[in-house]
Amino acid sequence: CDWNFFLSVDLPLMQAEVIQALKPETRAPLQIVVPNAGERVHPLCGFYHRSLLAPMAQAIKQHRYRMMDFIADAKSKIVDLNKFESAFFNVNTLEAYRQLSALKPK
Questions:
Q1: Distance CA 38, CA 80 (A)
Q2: Which of 16, 71, 74, 79 is spaced 20 to 30 A from 62 at the CA atom?
Q3: Helix, strand or coil for residue 68?
Q4: pTM of the model
Q5: CA separation for the pair 34, 45 (Å, rounded)
Q6: DSSP secondary structure code for residue 41 in this structure
Q7: How many CA atoms lie within 13 A of 83 on its CB side?
Q8: Model confidence at 106: pLDDT above 60
């Protein structure tokens, strides 16, 4: 497999349509395909090409952990997916979890 899809665990409302919208871009000569939604790039929801394995290992050895820097240095495409903004509701605090709980039907 040349491409791997990464998805952060703090995006519980993610929709299959987001992944389906990104996947066709993996046919292009790129290394990274990630979405932009809600005026924000989401680097932990995207496709990463296997050619990035060595550069990623090197970045980790150099303590360079910022994904946005990595995206800037690779052949990347940022896909506008504002129509799926609600899928990017981030839940990593108790308050966000409470907001999520209030959204779910009982």
A1: 9
A2: 79
A3: helix
A4: 0.89
A5: 6
A6: B
A7: 5
A8: no
What is the token pair recorded at 1?
């497999």
Structure tokens at 21: 């919208």
7-12-14-16 Cα dihedral, nearest 10 degrees:
90
Which pLDDT score is estimated for 101?
A: 87
**Residue 33 contacts residue 79 (beta carbons within 8 Å):** yes
Query: Which residues are CB-contacts of 58 (< 8 A; sequence separation ≥ 6)?
Result: none
Interval 35-81: pLDDT, tens: 999 999 999 999 999 999 999 999 999 999 999 998 999 999 999 99
Residue 104: DSSP 8-state:
S
